[in-house]
Amino acid sequence: MANQKSLFDRRKRRVRYHIAQVSGGRPRLSVFRSGKHIYAQLIDDKQQATIATASSSEQTKDGQKAKTYNVAAASEVGKLIAARALEKGVKQVVFDRGGYIYHGRVKALAEAAREGGLEF
Questions:
Q1: Nearest-CA neighbor of 47 among 68, 25, 30?
Q2: What are 62-104's pLDDT values in tens digits?
Q3: CA dihedral 94, 34, 101, 98 (to 10 degrees)
């Protein structure tokens, strides 16, 4: 039986294949979720370049330590990546959830990015 990592990698490949089929040249909003943080990258696959990044590990404005592993932190990252994408002139993206289920922190990040002005 396959282990968890290989199953995750299979899901990730399947999602990326589907995204490549339907992207239509739009940048990809990729999500990585660890135990402590959540990260988002806006990637242009044609130029193989990262357009914008945001993560929960960045310093907060007031300098206080906030929880970086909950839904609220993921929402902040979604708003931040949307603002940075709009600064760069990117409005339409395709959402890449990787091998993660669209639930919890991943869903919160996606909904906050939509509220921030990104279309996907």
A1: 25
A2: 666 678 889 999 999 999 999 999 999 999 999 999 999 999 9
A3: 40
Residues 6+ apart with CB under 8 A from 102: 110
The CATH number for 4-115, chosen from 3.40.50.2000, 3.40.50.720, 3.30.420.100, 3.30.230.10, is: 3.30.420.100
CB contact at 8 A, 54 and 120: no
Work out the number of other CB atoms within 10 angstroms of the CB of residue 47.
9
Half-sphere exposure of 14 (CA within 13 A, CB side): 9
pTM for the model: 0.90
Task: Please name every residue paired with 32 in a beta bridge, in sequence order, or none if there are none.
Answer: 39
